[in-house]
Amino acid sequence: MSKEQIKIVFYHPEIPGNTGSIGRTCVAMEFRLILIKPYGFKIDEKSVRRAGLDYWKYVSLSEYENFEEFLKIESPEEKDLFFFSRFASEVYFNAKFTSNSFLIFGAETTGLGDDIIQKWQHRCYKLPTYSDKIRSLNLANSATAVAFESIRQTRFIL
Q1: How many CA atoms lie within 13 A of 83 on its CB side?
Q2: 16-29 and 139-155 are packed helices; what angle lies between their axes, rounded to 10 degrees?
């Protein structure tokens, strides 16, 4: 893909409403949505469309069978890869996003997986939480928060 564009990547998404919601966000921000299989739902399910409203038809969507295929076809530069995990030590405010960033989020219940986190630990970030009463934040909400920070850094530089 030649045009620089921020991408949101969902690795093994499980909840159709989160995918539909982030698809809508991608349309609003002119981001591309990348989904890495397997999914916990069918992409054409009514619940995906409901969350994405009538915007789903405008989503710039790419799908990959696995993470290796994603890396091979997209061929991202390491500086453009940003992984998000509650187990990361660095907060996402410290990330230096690019106009070609890949914002990569794991499955709602299992995250990115130990193999990805270990290999890309130096590119992993977390969203801060302060309560010990929750395990994690909602996937679509987290991706949207990071998306807005990436926009702030890449499009609104003062």
Answers
A1: 25
A2: 20
| Total residues found in the chain within this entry | 158
Segments making up each domain of the chain, as ranges: 7-155
Mean pLDDT by 10 residues, the chain (158 residues): 83 93 94 96 72 79 97 97 95 96 96 94 95 90 97 81
Global confidence as pTM = 0.92
User: Which of these, 62, 54, 65, 76, lies nearest to 123 by C-alpha position?
Assistant: 76
7-155 CATH choice from 3.90.850.10, 3.40.50.2300, 3.20.20.70, 3.40.1280.10:
3.40.1280.10
How far is residue 22's CA from residue 1's CA, in Å, rounded to a whole number?
21
* 65: exposed, middle or buried (Cβ count in 10 Å: 0-12, 13-18, 19+): exposed
End-to-end Cα, the chain, rounded Å: 28
Q: Which two tokens stand for residue 98?
A: 């690019």
